Amino acid sequence: MRHPSGSSSRAWRSASLVATAAAMLALTTACGQEKGDQSPNGQNVGNQAPAKGDGYGAGSDGYGADTGDAKEGAGKAKAAGQLAVWDSKKLGKVVTDSEGRTLYRFDKDTAEPPKSNCDGACATTWPVASPEGAEAPPGVDKSLLGEVTRTDGSKQLTIDGWPMYRYAKDAKAGDAKGQGVGGTWYAAAPDGKKAAPAAEAQPPADTAPVDPAGLSTRKDPKLGEIVVDKNGMTVYRFTKDSAWPMKSACTGACLEKWPVVPPVEKNDTKGILKKGFVVFDRPDGQQQQTIDCWPMYTFSGDKKPGDTNGQGVGGTWYAAGPDGKPVGAPK
């Protein structure tokens, strides 16, 4: 029996390698990787160093407290004094202390009965507002003001039962950098509720409601064109995920903060890239919608349509653009 010549054998191996490479290229192109602007694990090439905390926006203790960034002495309580109301175009009416510093409320506290659940390192990042000298803002019912005794025996100002705090990273009057931190901290309104802008004009009662698409886009004043689900809630990308191979790095407790976007039919979309619009069968058994093969999520910290409280959380979460790219992520 004659053996193939050396040149024929080499030609056969070359043809086999070319065929394999072509198949891999076709699969890669199907998942939107042909542009080469992503590394294999889904991180942006040249991305910034990982942010502190767990990457899920919980900080080191789940309270949005990161003592490494808190200013020296920031945890000391200061007298609230004469309260005032700041009318913010973005946040609505916000209550401030006598120095014009934004006051915040914490979702893990309770108002009935009043109780603070922010102690230790948390209280360093979120200094309590002392009730000393507190006076209601003009036009606000003074009976809403009160105080609660903390676990260390000190007193804390309450508004309609909700304990009030400042934020260590607010450097000056008018800052509201604590808004939405950890999905649990919000600027306080004069009545103790979460500050919110005035409701947008509603359509006339005789106008038939339009059934929104499963996924569509809206024009955000700061971020531009971003994806929203059928309820108008912002859709996000996680930079620790990858599209090829398709993989989600958000599992377990992460999914409580960042629920997956369930499958959506292609014909139930508007303005969304259809290439790579496939359903991801997750290892945990859930099915998750992808755009350009990137898994999509919503954020539990977004309470109403138009909220973008998840933007930039942990340096890893960003609103998704109609092409599936993370809007505003470092290049």
List the helices and strands and how they pair.
Layout: H1 6-30, E1 78-79, E2 84-88, E3 92-96, E4 104-106, E5 110-111, E6 114-115, H2 121-125, E7 129-130, E8 145-149, E9 155-159, E10 162-163, E11 185-187, E12 215-220, E13 224-229, E14 236-238, E15 242-243, E16 246-247, H3 254-257, E17 279-281, E18 287-291, E19 294-295, E20 317-319
Parallel strand pairs: 1-7
Antiparallel strand pairs: 2-3, 4-11, 5-6, 8-9, 9-10, 12-13, 14-20, 15-16, 17-18, 18-19
Characterize the structure shown.
10% of the residues lie in helices and 21% in strands. It has 3 helices and 20 strands. It has helices at residues 6-30, 121-125, 254-257, and strands spanning 78-79, 84-88, 92-96, 104-106, 110-111, 114-115, 129-130, 145-149, 155-159, 162-163, 185-187, 215-220, 224-229, 236-238, 242-243, 246-247, 279-281, 287-291, 294-295, 317-319. The strands form 9 sheets. Strands 8-9-10 form a 3-stranded antiparallel beta sheet, with no helix packed on it. Strand 8 (145-149) and strand 9 form a beta hairpin. The termini are far apart.
